Amino acid sequence: MTNQAFILLCIVVFGVVGTCHGGSLRKGYYKYTCPDAEEIIKKATEKHVANDPTLPARFLRTHFHDCFVRGCDGSVLLNSTTNNTAEKDAIPNLTLAGFDVIDDLKAEVEKKCPNVVSCADVLALAARDAVSFKFQTPLWEVLTGRRDGRISRISEALANIPSPLSNFTALLRSFTSKGLNVHDLVVLSGGHTIGVGHCNTFSNRLYNFTGRSNQDPSLNPTYASFLKTQCENLSDNTTFVPMDPGSALTFDNNYYVTVKQNKGLFQSDAALLANKGSRKIVDELLDSKKFFTEFAQAMKRMGAIGVVTGNEGEIRKKCFVVN
Ligand code: HEM
Ligand SMILES: *[C@@H]1O[C@H](CO)[C@@H](O)[C@H](O)[C@H]1NC(C)=O
Ligand SMILES: *[C@@H]1O[C@H](CO)[C@@H](O)[C@H](O)[C@H]1NC(C)=O
Ligand SMILES: *[C@@H]1O[C@H](CO)[C@@H](O)[C@H](O)[C@H]1NC(C)=O
Ligand SMILES: *[C@@H]1O[C@H](CO)[C@@H](O)[C@H](O)[C@H]1NC(C)=O
Ligand SMILES: *[C@@H]1O[C@H](CO)[C@@H](O)[C@H](O)[C@H]1NC(C)=O
Ligand SMILES: *[C@@H]1O[C@H](CO)[C@@H](O)[C@H](O)[C@H]1NC(C)=O
Ligand SMILES: *[C@@H]1O[C@H](CO)[C@@H](O)[C@H](O)[C@H]1NC(C)=O
Questions:
Q1: Which of 20, 89, 101, 293 has a 20 to 30 A CA-CA distance from 238?
Q2: Residue 103 in marked binding region
Q3: Ligand 5: distance of its center to the CA of 281 in Å?
Q4: What is the CATH number of domain 24-161?
Q5: Which residues are marked as active site?
Q6: Other CB atoms within 10 A of residue 217 CB
Q7: Please, where in the chain does CATH 1.10.420.10 lie?
Q8: 165 Cα nearest atom in ligand 5
Q9: Which first-to-last residue range defines the signal peptide (predicted)?
């Protein structure tokens, strides 16, 4: 069914134009145009995750970065060209790997339905399916209908992706600028329950906190000593440590336990305790059930940031290059 036909049908059924504009995401957007799309992506994602347990963290982070730069439009997946340095090359210490796997997922979908499913949707679905793999049930709902952007700029990535050195004010400002609030900030930071951080993203806390060779007083001293055994100097960008030690491959709410123990890896993690309101939210999320519910809702909000829909943008044929 074409988009126009959908809108007509929608108006007939609901009688309200407002709920029927083509410009928003919806459940099962590909139901008629590529009925197997979501299943193909899920199966292929699970195959990859079974072989590489680090993929859930990579995909989740890549989806976050996609959404925070120009909206969730797949721009993070584009490669640099002779004339343009793309988002993915923004920060050498970013290491948002897994791009090749996304390209592979897209190729699988293209085989069945060429030019129908956007790379932005492939990424959003893959992130959900990868994180959900061990649970055998989707942890959050992913609405679809995103289209792909054609622009990816290194400068925009640098300006929009929050730094691990951020204080609470800077973090909140970043999230607010994306239409998210303090609750989303604390809940989505829970994504750090899986994955790793490279030494150079936090070593200033160990060796040069205020520029006087000292340690960050808000970091648990015992844990700091341990981290020093892992990260020998400020410029080490190859060694990495789990962000949630002990369960770095398990998606759970243990991140908040870690943060409460002053063992949050980044200054941005520790910053969640620096504000009364956010500290209260950290405490609430120590309840596992609450965390899963809240995370699902916040991911839906994050997945809707600045989406390109309707007739804007394009459906890329290959995720690393515009059509
Ligand atoms: C609140 C602001 C945030 C900051 C400052 C931040 C910063 C970082 C940094 C510095 C790393 C380590 C990268 C490396 O050294 O390889 C990282 C990893 C990660 N981040 Fe965040 N992040 C933030 C929010 C989020 C959000 C909202 C999500 C998703 C919901 C997320 C998911 C992840 C994941 C899963 C990893 C691990 C990646 C991997 O192991 O490959 N982060 N983050
Ligand atoms: C795109 O860039 C990635 C690195 O981000 C690289 O591994 C890949 O080979 C590039 N693909 C093409 C087709 O240039
Ligand atoms: C790069 O820029 C030059 C000069 O502006 C232009 O001729 C060329 O077509 C551009 N190449 C690409 C790949 O956009
Ligand atoms: C690590 O740092 C070195 C030296 O500054 C640099 O040449 C290299 O590109 C960096 N590697 C990564 C993965 O950031
Ligand atoms: C937080 O960081 C911002 C930007 O780096 C800075 O301007 C501000 O002074 C900091 N706020 C506090 C309370 O340290
Ligand atoms: C990358 O590393 C540099 C130097 O260690 C640091 O200033 C910058 O904030 C880091 N950026 C991210 C996003 O990790
Ligand atoms: C420590 O930080 C100060 C101030 O930012 C800087 O001037 C100095 O070069 C840093 N030391 C090292 C070893 O990087
Ligand atoms: C920092 O540590 C890394 C990893 O141990 C090592 O490869 C690098 O040479 C060290 N750099 C300096 C300046 O000591």
A1: 101
A2: no
A3: 22
A4: 1.10.520.10
A5: 65
A6: 11
A7: 168-300
A8: 5
A9: 1-22
Residue nearest (by alpha carbon) to ligand 4 atom 2:
237
In the chain, residues under CATH classification 1.10.520.10 are: 24-161
In the chain, % of residues over pLDDT 70: 91
Closest listed ligand to the CA of 68 = 1
Q: What is the pLDDT of residue 19?
A: 42
| Atom 2 of ligand 7, nearest CA residue | 211
Domain 168-300 architecture:
Orthogonal Bundle (1.10)
Alpha carbon distance 44, 60 (integer Å): 16
Task: Name the percent of the chain in helix, strand, coil, to the closest 5.
Answer: 50, 5, 45
Contact 271, 229 (CB under 8 A): no
C-alpha 105 to ligand 7 mean position (Å): 43
Enter the pTM of the model.
0.91
Residue 5 is given by DSSP the state H
Q: Which residues of the chain have pLDDT under 50?
A: 1-3, 6-11, 13-22, 93
Question: What residue owns the CA closest to ligand 3's atom 8?
Answer: 83
**Is 75 a known ligand-binding residue?**
yes
CA–CA distance, 168 with 157 (Å, rounded to integer):
20
Q: What are phi and psi of 133, to 5 degrees?
A: -45, -50
